[in-house]
């Protein structure tokens, strides 16, 4: 599991080794993501990517996203290191 920090979003990548059709992330830390914003899902053969809108209250870079990931009726306590997006030249 990993996360990427973009300008307005975090992209959480879940590597399950199989296709996941549904997942939802609930953060443990306040003011990291906009909880009311829709979480956009993109499936792949190896898992799923969840786009999370950054909170307007986020004031500093985040080194990891910690929270509860709900997949297929099961809940998992997760921590994903956050990597900053690289600038495209």
Structural commentary:
This protein has 89 residues and is mostly beta strands. The chain has one domain. The chain is 0% helix and 53% strand. The model has no long low-confidence stretch (mean pLDDT 90).
Strand order of the largest sheet: 3-6-7-1-2-5-4
Helix content class: under 10%
Largest sheet: 7 strands, mixed
> How many distinct helices?
0
Q: What is the count of distinct domains?
A: 1
Radius of gyration: 13 Å
The mean pLDDT is 90
Features:
7 strands, mainly beta, 89 residues, seven-stranded mixed β-sheet, globular
Brief sketch in words of this structure:
The protein has 89 residues and is mainly beta.
Task: Please write out the topology.
Blueprint: E1 2-5, E2 9-15, E3 23-27, E4 40-44, E5 47-53, E6 64-71, E7 74-84
Parallel strand pairs: 1-7
Antiparallel strand pairs: 1-2, 2-5, 3-6, 4-5, 6-7
